[in-house]
Amino acid sequence: MQFVYHPEAGEALLRVDVRAYEHLFKVRRVAKDALLYWRNLNDGVLYGYRIQEVGKKEALLERVSGEILEIDASKKMHIGWCVIDPKMIEKTLPMLNELGVSKLSFIYAEFSQKSHKLDFDRMQRIVINSCQQCGRSRWMEMELFSSLQAYLEAYPTSTILDFSQETMKESAEISSILIGPEGGFSEKERNMFSNHTIVGLTCKTILRSETAVVAVASKILA
C-alpha cells in the first residue's frame, strides 16, 4: 500500500474510523507517533500525518507535511465503454486505473443488457483500492450515459473502435475512444459514426469487450 485514502486528507487534524482502516490499526498495529501518508485523490498532494491517539473506535492524526506529488499517466485518455456484465467490468477496473485512464464513460448500447446495473459505490471502492496499491495520485473518473446517442453528443470527436481497414497505431494521438459491448454495435448505431474516425486493432481474432478495453488503453498509455 503506497498511501491511505481519506476524502478529508489535507485537513490539519484527521479523525478516522479505526474499523474503516482495520488493516492499519488492527493488523499492522501502527503505534502512536507513527508517520502515515494519505491522499484525497483529488488535489495530487501526498500528506504526511502523525498519529496522536488511537482509541477503540477512532484515531486522531495531525498533519505534518504536504507535498504535490503527481503520479499518473503522461497523457489524458478517455474511454467510452458500452455496458457489459458488471462482474467483468469490476475485474477490469483496476487494470484501467493502473494504466492511467483518466475517465471511463459507461454507455447502454442497443446490445447492452439493460438488466445489467452498475454499482458505482462499489466500483469507486475498487478504484480507490487500486490507487492505494499502485500509487496513482488521482482516481479514474466514471460516469454513465443512457444511450449511445447521448454519449456521442457529449463527446462528438470520440474515435470509434470497430472493424476497419485503418488500424490504431501505438503512437496514435487519440484522447477519446469508444468501445462496444459484447456483440458489437448495431447497424442503427453504426449509422451514427459517419462523422467519426473509425479504427481497428492489428490482431485478427475477435476480442471480448473487456480484452479490447485493456488492449486499447495499453497501446495508448503503456
From TrEMBL:
Function noted in UniProt: Specifically methylates the N3 position of the uracil ring of uridine 1498 (m3U1498) in 16S rRNA. Acts on the fully assembled 30S ribosomal subunit.
Chief localisation class: cytoplasm
NCBIfam families linked: PRK11713.3-3 (NF008695), RsmE family RNA methyltransferase (TIGR00046)
Record keywords: Cytoplasm, Methyltransferase, rRNA processing, S-adenosyl-L-methionine, Transferase
A GO BP annotation: rRNA base methylation
Reactions catalysed: uridine(1498) in 16S rRNA + S-adenosyl-L-methionine = N(3)-methyluridine(1498) in 16S rRNA + S-adenosyl-L-homocysteine + H(+)
GO cellular component, one term: cytoplasm
CDD domains from the UniProt entry: RsmE-like
GO molecular function: rRNA (uridine-N3-)-methyltransferase activity
Documented EC number(s): 2.1.1.193
Domain of life: Bacteria
Domain annotation Ribosomal RNA small subunit methyltransferase E methyltransferase: ranges: 75-220
The protein, known as: Ribosomal RNA small subunit methyltransferase E
Family: Belongs to the RNA methyltransferase RsmE family.
Source taxonomy: Bacteria, Pseudomonadati, Campylobacterota, Epsilonproteobacteria, Campylobacterales
Cellular localization per UniProt: Cytoplasm
Entry keyword rRNA processing: yes
Keyword Lipoprotein: no
Name of the top EC class for this enzyme: transferase
